[in-house]
Structure formats: C-alpha cells, structure tokens
Amino acid sequence: MTSELDIFVGNTTLIDEDVYRLWLDGYSVSDAVALRVRSGILEQTGATAAVLQSDTMDHYRTFHMLERLLHAPPKLLHQLIFQIPPSRQALLIERYYAFDEAFVREVLGKKLSKGTKKDLDDISTKTGITLKSCRRQFDNFKRVFKVVEEMRGSLVDNIQQHFLLSDRLARDYAAIVFFANNRFETGKKKLQYLSFGDFAFCAELMIQNWTLGAVGEAPTDPDSQMDDMDMDLDKEFLQDLKELKVLVADKDLLDLHKSLVCTALRGKLGVFSEMEANFKNLSRGLVNVAAKLTHNKDVRDLFVDLVEKFVEPCRSDHWPLNDVRLFLNQYSASVHSLDGFRHQALWDRYMGTLRGCLLRLYHD
Amino acid sequence: MPGKLKVKIVAGRHLPVMDRASDLTDAFVEVGARSCPSKHRERQVDDEDLQDEPLQITVLDHDTYSANDAIGKVYIDIDPLLYSEAATVISGWFPIYDTIHGIRGEINVVVKVDLFNDLNRFRQSSCGVKFFCTTSIPKCYRAVIIHGFVEELVVNEDPEYQWIDRIRTPRASNEARQRLISLMSGELQRKIGLKVLEMRGNAVVGYLQCFDLEGESGLVVRAIGTACTLDKLSSPATFLPACSSPSKDMKESPLVHPPSHGCRSTHNSPIHTTTGSRLTQNFSVSVPTLIYTGMGSGSAGKEGGPFKALLRQQTQSALEQRGGSPHRFCRRREFPFFTLTAFPPGFLVHVGGVVSARSVKLLDRIHNPDEPETRDAWWAEIRQEIKSHAKALGCHAVVGYSESTSICEEVCILSASGTAAVLNPRFLQDGTVEGCLEQRLEENLPTGCGFCHIPYDELNMPFPAHLTYCYNCRKQKVPDVLFTTIDLPTDATVIGKGCLIQARLCRLKKKAQAEANATAISNLLPFMEYEVHTQLMNKLKLKGMNALFGLRIQITVGENMLMGLASATGVYLAALPTPGGIQIAGKTPNDGSYEQHISHMQKKINDTIAKNKELYEINPPEISEEIIGSPIPEPRQRSRLLRSQSESSDEVTELDLSHGKKDAFVLEIDDTDAMEDVHSLLTDVPPPSGFYSCNTEIMPGINNWTSEIQMFTSVRVIRLSSLNLTNQALNKNFNDLCENLLKSLYFKLRSMIPCCLCHVNFTVSLPEDELIQVTVTAVAITFDKNQALQTTKTHVEKSLQRASTDNEELLQFPLELCSDSLPSHPFPPAKEHLESASSNSGIPAAQRATSVDYSSFADRCSSWIELIKLKAQTIRRGSIKTTVTVEKASPMGEGNFRNRSAPPCANSTVGVVKMTPLSFIPGAKITKYLGIINMFFIRETTSLREEGGVSGFLHAFIAEVFAMVRAHVAALGGNAVVSYIMKQCVFMENPNKNQAQCLINVSGDAVVFVRESDLEVVPTQQPAANCHPSCTEGEVTT
C-alpha cells in the first residue's frame, strides 16, 4: 500500500507556525519531519510519524503555492485562492522577509548580483544557514532593491507600501538597500566586530541627513537628478565636503579649534592628555574622510576609514564611551566659534550624522 | 418572459503575462450566453434561457497577427437574480478560470437582470421557485406545507466521447463539457421548478443534484428534492400580533380568491374522496386552500382506499371540504419521499428504520436524449421498492431519502436509501395517510421518545424484532436498536455524547465483462450489505450505544473489487433499552489455549465497552426490570431494522441478521474471517481527547458551539500492491486508509481543541485497478467545554419540563416553527409565544387534543393568504417585480443591511466567506438566502510534475474551487455557504504522460448571516417583508 496522493485543503488556509519556520529555514520535508519528531510533538499529540509526514508535506505544498504571492505581498492580500485571516497574512509576510543576522552581515554592502548569488553556498557553509534559506533571503533583498530602486519618496515608506512589512523590518530593509546601492564595505576584518544593527543605525542617519531626500526641497525641484531620493547620497553635498579641508589645512584654524576643545573639556575628560596629544590626528582623520567622499571608492570605504582613523586610535587609548561622546560634542560645537570658518551648515550636516555613527561604532 | 441582462466589466487584475516580449497582456472580454458570444452592449434573452444558461465571460488576449489567445472564463449563474428575495445584483471580483492553467487573475463584473412583464401564460420558465440544498426547513423560513418528492433527470451525450473530441484541444473539450453540464443542470432546475409550481409549492428544499458520468453511454444529470411552500419569517415582533389576533387575519380571507389566477389548473382534477363531505369544485379560482384535517375524525385512514387508485397519477389533487371549515388541498404523488433530514417539531411521529434498495444495471447508449425513459424507469423501480419496504415497516413515508450511483465501465449500481417514517398529517399536505396512522394520532406523544416507538403492528411484525416498552414513557413499544438516515430530532433525549461509527468492507471480484460482471456484482451485494450491517451493529455495541443517525452506506464498484463504506453517528437514546455487551464464543471449546485466547479477547472487548461508555459519558439511569414491570413480548430475536434488498437477490430479505440471545450479542469465532472481524473491531482508535466526530449536522450532547469553524476537504489515494491480494489484506488496507485519514485530521485540527468534526462525509471511489480514493469533507467547530456541562444539565431539566407541556407544544407547532428553530440556540421568543399562546387558549389540554386549534389554523391561513397575494401580484406584474405586501417597506432596509456587513470587508481587502456543510453557522443567525450555488469544474494538466505531482495538482485545484465558490457568494452579497457539499471529485492521472484530469462538482446555499452578538447591538431587526420590494426600481447601468 503506497500513498499516491494525500492532500488537505481548508476553507481557511491552515498555517502551522512551526512548520513555516522550518520551511523558511530551508529544511527538506524529511529533515523537517525529523526535527518535528525531536520536538516531542508525537508524544504530545499521540500522532504517528506517517501523520506527521503527511501534515508536513501538506504545509510545504501550501507554502510553496503561497511563495509566488509572497513575492508581491499586496497580491497576497487581494488574491482569492487562499482565505487567510489578516493577522496570519501579516505573519506570513513578516516571517518570509525576516532574515538572519549572520547572513545579512555577509552580504551587506555587496552588489546584489548574480555573482554574489553564486557565492551563497560559501556563505551557507560559513554561517550554517541552509543554502535554500540563503537564497530566499538574498532574493528578498534583491526583490526589494529592484522594486524601490527607481522610486521617489521615502525609502522606508516605499518598502512598507510595496511589501507590507512592519516598521522595524522596513527600516532594516531600507538599510540593506541603502548599503547595497552605495556598496559600503562591511566585510573587512576590522569591521567584523560591528553588528547589522550598528550599520542599520548609521544607514538611517545617513539616509536622513546625507541623501537628496534629506534636503527636503525635492518636490519643488523637478530635476531628473532628484529621482533616487533616499537611495543615493547627495552628490553636491559630498562635493562641498571638500571645503571642510580648511579645518586641518589651515594651521591657525586647527590650533584654534584644538584650544577651544581643550579648554572646554579640561577636567571633564578622563583621557584628557591622550585627547590633547591625539587631537590633530583625530581631527585630520575625520576631516579627510569628509574630503575624500567625492570618490566612489572612498565612499565605499567610509566605515573602514572611520574605524581606522577614529575608533581604533581611541580604543587603543582606552577612551570610555562617555569621553568619546563629550569629545565629539565639543569637537563639532567648537567649530561654530571659529570665525574664519564659513561652512557652518555643511559642518553640521556632516558632523551631526558622523557623530551619531561614531558613537554607535565605538564599542568592542 | 423576456428580460434584459446587463453586464458591466469594471476591471481586471493579476492577469497573466501573455506577451513575453513586452511583459504585458492586451486583455479584452467577450460576454455572452449560449455559444454565440456577443460584443453588443445589450442583448435580449428569454428567462427560460436565463435559467438554463450561465452567463459566460471570456477573457482573451488580443494578438494582432495570430489568433487571440484565451486567458480564461468566468461562468456566472444568474438564477439568483431571477427571484425576488435573493440578490438584486451580482457584483464583485471573479477568478478567471482556465481548465488548463487554473485561475489566472480576476475580473470585476456587475450583472443585473430586468425581467419584463409576463407575456407568456404557458411559460416554460420557473422563475420564482427557490432552491435550497439545506435538508431542513431553511432558518429564516417556515414551512406552510411540505408537498413532497420532486425528481427529474436529463441525459445527453458526453462531449468527451464525441468524435469531435479527437480533433479538438483539451481546453475546447473541457469547456464544452463544463458548459453542457451547467446547461443541463440549469434545465433540470427549471424543470423541477415547473413541477413545484404545478404542486403549488414555492420552493425546493433538500435539493440534491448529481452527475452520472456514464462514459460512452452518455451523461446523466438527475436531481431530487422536497417541494415545499415556504413562508419568509418576519421578525418575532411583527409576528406576535398576527397570531394573537386571528380574527384580524380572517377578515382578509376574501382576498384568497383573486379571480385572475385560474388558468394554470387545467390539469388538476379535483377528486371527491370522503363520503359525507361536500365536494367543491373551485375551478375558476383553484387557489390552494387549507383545511385542518385528520384530528379526531379518524377519516384519514379511510381516505387511503380510494387514494390507492390514484397512486400513479402524479398531479392529481383532491379538494375536500368539511363542515364549513376551510379547505385543504390534498394531493398524492407516487412517492411519499422527503429528502429532508431534520424536521419541524411535531412533524416526525414515528421512525421505522432504514430502507434501502440497490440495483445493478448495464449501461447502454442513450439513443434519444430527449426521452430519458430508461434511466427514469430504473429509478422508478428502485423508488417503488423503497416504498414497499417502508410500507412493510408500517410507515407511509420515507424521510432522509437520497439516491446515488456507482459506475465502473458499463456496470452501474443504483442505490437509494431513506428512513421509513410516520409523519404528522397536519403538516403533510400530501394525503398519504395509511391505516397505521389513525391510532397513533390520538396518542399523546411524549417528546423525546415518540419517534422511537414502533410504527408497525407488534403482533404482525414485518421481521423478527426484539421489543421492549419505551424506557422513557413506558407506554409504547420500542425496538432495541434504531437505525436511521436522518439527523437526530432536536427533541430526542440523548444520554452522553455521540460518535462517528464506520463500517468498512472490501470484496474482491473477478474481472468480467458486461452481464457476467453484473451478475457477479449482484451476487456479492447481499453479502456485503449483511457484513456492513453486522459491522455497524458490532461497533455500535462496542460503543455502548443503541441508535444510529445519518446512516449512509456507499457501495462502490471497481474493476476487480467492491467497496462498502457505511458512516453513521451512534448515540445512546434514553428511550431505547441499554445495549447488551458482545460475547465471544469459540467453536472448539475443548482446546485450552484457544479458550484462553477467547477469554482474553472477551476481556479486551469488555474493557473497550467500559472505556467507551466513560469516554462518551454514557451513564443511563439504572432501571431495574421490576420497575419496567411490563411483560416483554416473547424475547425472540433482535430486530432487523435495516431492510435492504438487492436487485436480483431476493434471498437477502430472508437473511436472518439476528444472532439470537436476548441481550448479549454473540460473535462466533469459527474461522479466520471472524477473527479478523473481532480484531478490526478493536483497532478503531477513538479520537484524541478534546475531539469528537459525527456525520450528522450537530453532535448529540454538545450544544454550546463557539463561532470558530473550519471546513475542509481531504483526499487520499492509495495504490495497492497488486500481488496476491486477499480480502483480508484489502480490508486492512482500506481500514488503515480511513483510520489514518481520520488521525491526520485530528492532528491537523489540534489547534481547535476542544472541537467537533461535524458532517464528516466520506466518499470512496475506485478510479483504477489498484487505486482507492477516499474524499472527506467535514467541518470542525469549536465549542466551550465548560459551558457544555451546564447546558447539558439544563437540557435534561428542560426536557422534563417539555414532557409536561408537550400537548400544547404539539398543537402550537406552527407557532414554534415561526421562530427560528435553531436546535442549538433556542430562541427566547419561541418560548414566549408558546406561553402566551397556551395561556390565551383556555381550553383544557385534553379537549384541545381533539378539537381544532383555531389560533394555529388561523395563523397558517393568514400566511397562506399572504402567499397567494404575493403570487397574484407576481403573476400580474411579472415574475419578480413584487410590491410591498404587508407593511410599508423602508427603503433603508437594504442599505442598512449592506452597511452592517460592510465593515468586515473594509478591514481586510477580501471579505471572508465561511463555508460549511451544515445548515447553520454557530453563533450567527442567517438573515437571507441568496440562492443555490451549483458549480462544476474541470481541470486538466499536461505538466503534472511541474505542478507538484498529483498532490500539488489536486491541492491547487480544490483551493481554486473553494475560491470560485467564495467569489460567487461574495458577489451575490453573501458571507457564507451553508449545506456545502462536494458531490463529485473524479480524479484521473496518467503519470507516464505527465497528465492528470479532475472533475469537481460542488453545491450549497449562499446566505447572509449576522453574528448573534451583532444582533443584540442592533435592536431593530429588519422585517423580512422589506426584502421583497425594491429590486428592480431605479437600477440602470451602462
């Protein structure tokens, strides 16, 4: 007696959350059954392995049919074939677009191309995430990227609207898309200590302040360049950043800046002497990073540079985080007292974001 | 009667990409009925055509250079638009369906129908007759008269077997088939409708339509149903004054004679029957009028004689008048059958037992599709047999009646079954009152046990039976076991809970051709029936129960085997005696080890019985024999209540199904077969705790459903290893298949615990030599475990109270009928009626039993008057344009309602449509019936592997069928399908060719329901009368 056909179709589509997770994690039916057996479900329900096998098959088939719709979540809401309560629909979508921290760190900032896709099996072996799951996550990134790439308006809003993700997940996707678009290097050994959360935090700040959309004048300016508002850094702004170079190039200005910062922080900093000794190096580093951002190559290396030029020197001197905060606050604020410096607004736009990023990046 | 059909195509979405190069689709549509699609905006069609033909919308992709590609089609049955109370507009998103690719996008369509005045007096259409799949009186109606059985059958050639099929594409062939079947079912429905009108009914309840795919010899579409005159229930508030002041209604009685309405009665010849009564020939009017018959006079029985002569005259009618009392129309038909399974209180007097008949036929080509005589004659034969069985059981009617077929190659088994019963003649407009009735009528029928009392003569029993005095009233005789095909009557007193009981059986058969094959099958049938019956009996005893409800025995024929599957719901009826245990007796008592084995087995069986009793909470009150005190008549033999007979084998009636002994049921183990039987008895695993299952509408013993429901269909096909198949191996395989299927269901639905699987419907088919296919459709309903305990207690109390007031109850039944008689949610208003009505009538109960109850009569009369008025207007103004009949309609009514149902739709993008095989929705009230859903789909694939194999293919198809049903219901403005049934699921595969094909036929009633919690919030219930008007005025599109 062999089973030829075995199906179960409910008027309301049955979704088993546990099986969905196993399916998303890329387990085969037999692996999923084995895992379910190990979870002790047979003892709890008194079912047999055959029942479990049939149940798992059914769910996998359903998920397989749903997958096509999950690629365009609004379709899932409007389709008529599967009657799914709205809360379950949200769960299906949210889980489908969820990703593994380990995986996202591997591909963050990489071009979402076929080439990267070929490397997925390496990532799979490295992270222990099944290849199937890697593929799904990668395809999700790519799909979201493709859809919002050419869109005007807020990146997060666009993602939310077209993929019906929760606010949190939409923000994460915005970061992923932003990183992929600007190809920020995140894979260097130096950067390994950073989590996806750290990068996402920085991405959000950069989207808010450094992109075209951030300027907030796009609607009045129907220039064709305004198309990719949240995805691309504001080229003009990056160009202007060269002007900041004067802060380190002009010896007087640099000295004045140093003395202003030192006066303000004297006695308040545990690492005052180290700061005083390193001030010129740190300032030079931060300003040079800004000045270099005109080149795409240097944009990509932004995080490497920040870690090299600022995070690492401070860390080697054992600056406490609070001291870093005090220093950065004072460092950016003091520029306003420099009479000869004309680019106050530019400095604020640059340093405001950078300060946030650096504080986030500064940890072990 | 011509009409104007207006179709508006609003939008399309999710269309497939038809042009790879541009990733686009140049979609356009063709709209039409019949095979000539029209591109005109408006087209005039006859309503006869409208009834037969579904609206067909074809979506195509425009190609400049090559022929346009079909994307898919939408078939819309516009019947619901043709009667006034249902939908006035069909509007919504419909899936675009293609028989090769499945659903490909959706299209938004608005359809309206304007019917012109009735120009043709000799009309062929039957607009206005309502159809219900529900096998009980629909919830928002009350039955004025239940007329009886209607049947019809149409035949045609199967397009799949026409020569043209060799040259056309599979798509064309499938579409031809789909279209033909929907055409045939439309025609069938129209013909049945005409019959109902002829009987002066206005509705068909328990409508069951089936397809017989006879292959080479053709295609048969047949339907049976119960013709009724239904009356839309107004809200209790409007109803109450009507019944408390009958005089007011009486004043309106002159309106009973609208003079214009006589022309259709030419073939009704009123016949004088009763001696001493005055004959009135009311030709000019021929309005069906009411009379209160039967009670006290005892003439009912005598009427039987002259009636016999009329037996074959189908539409004969007798008009009778008695001493100034109003008329009642008496008509008899050939078959006093009722497809209903649940009845208004008081309708069912006694139940005799299951009657069934089978017949093996050789199919031959249907030569003349216009005269389907052969098939008609076949069924007539079987029905005649059923009728005579019923008569032998002392019953004049058959309830819970159904018919089915099983076809393999050119052999066909026709089966019919039902429950012989005695009905209350006051309800039955049908005058089929036989001799057995008169004495029963004078009895005070105690509720909760009356239906168990034997209808046949104790001294002249049709078969050996073991009778005792009723354990409830101690006045009447009852059998020890009762088998029925109906649902448990709502007033029945049940102890504990019920459970699903199945008997499963396979028998190998030699492959043979034609007549030899038919003979082989006929020879096997009686043995199968016998074994199925024995198995059922054994399992029933094992469960410690004494009655089966909803019994359905399905015999399926295959190339080399026969399959029998019987499903029923076992219960413990308080009125019937406690079942005895099962005793095992060995044949060789001297063998010590054998003896030990037997005793071991006996112990196991006893343990199981004890365990089951605990599980199903069966703890009947202990009654010692002395209290019963009645001399039990000759403890002869067990009753045989399953009267069955197979064509060509009369000996089965002689088969003694009893096993001797008074109460213990002895199983003799004399061969391995019997051993097997005993083993199989013990292999049935009870459902896990928190789960119950039954195949009836509601689970006996559970009455506090919560609102969560999940309808599902599960299909399994297994391939048997062809090597040396034995009956035992086959039985085991089949048993395992069913048991595993049930286990799977329990596992899948575990999140709903505590819940009950209701209306579990198993269908077995044998698509190929070694394949067995089992299809299950059921609904899981959650219930509140804690409340259950309380309500069962109060239920018992209530039943005690009921017993005392049963006199009134019986007499007032039309009152009770008016209220919503949802069995699980008795409406408080119903009680109030009862009380007020009974207090109004100051006649002592004893007197009332024999006197005419005017209040109930007047009520019935008034409703009848309303109906006639309605009808008159209908005829005058065209079939659906009716004006306000009773009260002024508030134009807001409809709008209000829409608003109320709107919010859930607004929340989610797609409105939820519930589906259930039951006739009700727990925790909700059905406010409107929108019409019957009857859909037939074919799906074929030539890329089976790519679609996920057979499972993937069928899974997707069934999901699509559900989607299309839901879309149609939603477009009608409904939010649920009740009495949903998947009547056919024919699956064929050819994995070698990477092909598969499946045919599915589903039906049900589209309804609008309102949550009971919502009802409380909205205090003013919309009067039902408001639903009638305003369907055509001011609605113009395009």
From TrEMBL, chain A:
Any single Pfam family the record assigns to this protein: FIBP
GO molecular function: fibroblast growth factor binding
Superkingdom in the source lineage: Eukaryota
Gene Ontology cellular component annotations, sorted alphabetically: membrane; nuclear speck
GO terms of biological process kind: platelet aggregation
Identification of the protein by name: FGF1 intracellular binding protein
Source species: Propithecus coquereli
Automatic annotation (TrEMBL), chain B:
Domain of life: Eukaryota
GO biological process, any: positive regulation of vesicle fusion
Domain C2 residue range list: 3-94, 123-231, 334-425, 475-573, 688-781
All copies of domain C2CD5 C-terminal, residue ranges: 915-1008
Any Pfam family: YbjQ_2
Molecular function per GO: calcium ion binding; calcium-dependent phospholipid binding
Gene Ontology cellular-component annotations: plasma membrane
Region Disordered, annotated ranges: 626-656
PANTHER family given in the database record: C2 DOMAIN-CONTAINING PROTEIN 5 (PTHR37412:SF2)
Protein name per its UniProtKB record: C2 calcium dependent domain containing 5
Gene: C2CD5
